[in-house]
Amino acid sequence: MLTLDLTPAEWTVEDIEKLPHDGNRYELHEGSLVIMSPAILWHNHVASRLTWLFERADRLAFSEVGIKFGDRSTRIADVAVFASQPDMRRAHHPPAAIAIAVEIVSPESEERDVGSKPAKYAAAGIPEYWLVRFPVDDNVRDADITRFTLNDGRYLQVAEYRLSDLEKTGLPAD
Description:
The chain is α+β, with helices and mostly antiparallel strands and 174 residues long. The protein has a single domain, classed as tt1808, chain A (Alpha-Beta Complex). 24% of the residues lie in helices and 36% in strands. The chain contains four helices and ten strands. The protein has helices at 13-17, 41-56, 110-123, 163-169, and strands spanning 2-4, 25-29, 32-36, 60-68, 74-82, 92-93, 98-104, 128-133, 144-151, 154-162. Strands 6-4-5-7-8-9-10 form a seven-stranded mixed sheet, sandwiched between helices. The chain has a three-stranded antiparallel sheet with strand order 1-3-2, with no helix packed on it. Strand 2 and strand 3 (32-36) form a beta hairpin. It is globular and about 45 Å long.
């Protein structure tokens, strides 16, 4: 991860929405611009499969969704499930619009996806968080998923899944 700090007071979410669509991903951490390289292929493949899984269950899901935490702070969820129809003209959405935030762990994103992002999502009241990891058995065609729900401002683990199993059975009913 490359962090480029160009006088934090100068960067806003509106500014990064004007940056080129050049394959990089841009976040704003309290005014500091963070430029992330494109994700690994496994990451992109899993994001597509999860988006399809949610859509199959009639949930509004999109990959690479900006979540706006104020004028100077935004994070990109790898997949986000919306509570209702989002404004399709926007790249960044308020946390209240998000029902589930999904982070897919890549080697360079471990600290963010396990630490800072879920803490930010929980503080903003996003009801559910899914953490997706490369499978322990090294099967590049699958993923291990841990599901968390918000309880008293913290995420508590409620279930674990294999992506391939969810694709066969569908999303759990609850």
